[in-house]
Design a protein that fits this description.
By secondary structure, the protein is an alpha+beta fold. About 25% of the residues lie in helices and about 20% in strands.
Amino acid sequence: MDRRSFLLATAMSLMSVPARAHERMDNAFVWMHDVTTKKVDFSKEPKRTRKAFIDLTNEELVNLCKAVGYMRNKYPLHHPLQWDNFATVHAMHCTEFGPEYPPVHWSWNFLPWHRGYLFSLERILANILTTQFNVDGDKFALPYWDWTNQKCMPNTKERIAAGIPSPFFGYDLSKEDMISDDNLGFDNSALYEGNRAPNILHPDMNPVWELTEESKQHIEECLHYMSKEYVSLMLAAPHEQFLGLPATDRKTGQGLLEQGPHNDGHDWIGSRFGKNRTMGTLRSAARDPMFYMHHCCIDRIWSLYTNPQPDPKGEWGVQSYNFFDVDGSMIKMSNQDIIEGVTNITYTPSSEDILLTPAKRPLKATKPVTVNVSKTVTNTPVSIDLPEDFFGNQVMVVDFEIDTITTADKYTIRLSVKDKFVGKINWLDGDSRVTNRNTTHVFSVLLLGLPRDAKTLTLVPPKHGAIEVLIKSITYRAI
C-alpha cells in the first residue's frame, strides 16, 4: 500500500470516531462518552416484524449472517461499529457503570435500555445490508429465540427438516476447511461463538448432558422459568414485580422477567467451567450473537404485558443513554424516548406457539399477608410452616425479607414443596466496588401451582460454600 492509500484508509477508519473518544486499552475496545449526540426521528423508521428464529427462511438467515459477519470482520479494530466495540456498550453499563454509563440491570431500566440497544443494532445491520450487499435493509428485522418452545440452540424449520445443525455452530459445517475457500459469499461462522456450553452433540436443554448435580438442578430451573406456563402467568404480575424497582440493586431490584427467564437463558448458554463463558459473564455477554436473539425474546414478552405500567413521562422515563447510530456517531435516547418512540417493531408468534399469551384475568385485590419467620439458613435445609391460605393458589408473589450474615459472592437457595422445585432465591455476584454484607434485602419470587394439601415450604441451601442467611419474614399475596 502506498503512502496516499495508507493515509486515506486511516482517515476513513477514524471518520466515525468523535475527537473526544475515551479509549480503553484492554482488548483494544473503544467507548465514547461526553460527545455531541443527536435524537432519532422515530417517524422515519420503517416497520419491522421480528419472527421466531425457527421460522426464518434461508434467505433471511443468510442476510443475518452477512450483516453480523460484516460487523465482526470488516470494520477496523477501533471503529465504533466493530462487533466487539458495539458489545462493549453493554459491558460498560454492567461492570463499569457510573454517571456516564448508568446501570441497566437490576431495576426498571432493564427492559427499556435493552429495547434501545436492540433497536440500535437492528438499524446498523439493516444499513449494512443496504449499503454493502444491495439488500433492502428496510425489510430486515432481528429474529428472536423462542425458548418457550425451542429449548435448544435455535434452528430453522428448513434446516431441521434437512437434518442440518443450528447455524449457531456454523452456517454450513460441510464447508469448513482450513485451506479452501467455502465460496458461500458471507461469513460461514457469523453466528458462532466458541464459549458456549451447548454444543453440536448436546444442543438441547437436557439435564442428562450435565456433569454435576448442581448443573442438573439448574437445567430443572431453566425448564421451570423458561416455560410457557411460567411466562404466561408472570404476565399477570403487578409492574413492581414484573418490570423491577426504581432503585438499582443486584439483590432486590430485578423484575421477575429479568431474574427468572433472562438470567437462566444466559446461564444455560454461558455459565460453565468457571466464569470464562461469554454469555454467562456480564462484561462479555453481548459478544455472542445469541445475546440478541435471547433479548429479542425478552423484549417480545414485555410487548405482551398488558397490566398498568408507570407513566414514561414521569420518573421512569427520565434516565437517558447513548447508543450508536448507523454511521458510528452517537444518538441519545431516554427511557421515555424508547418506550414511546420504538413503536415500529412488532413480533409475529412462532409457528409452534399456541399457548404463550397474556393472562386474561384481572389482578386480584388481595392484601399482602406477612408471616414473621426468624429462621437461619446455613448448610442444611430449613422448613417453614405457613398458613393454609398460602397453598393452593394458582400464582403467588412472595417477598422474602432476608439478612445476609455470612456468604460467598454468589449463592442460590432452592424453594421446594413436597420435594418439588417451585422457585429460588438468587444472590448474584456483588459489585466489587461496594459491600453488600449485613444488610436487609427483599427478594420477590413468583410461585406457581402450590398443592392445596401442603403445609411446609422448604429452603434448600447450596451444597458448596458457607452461608448464613436469616429469613426475617415472608410476605405473600395471590394474583
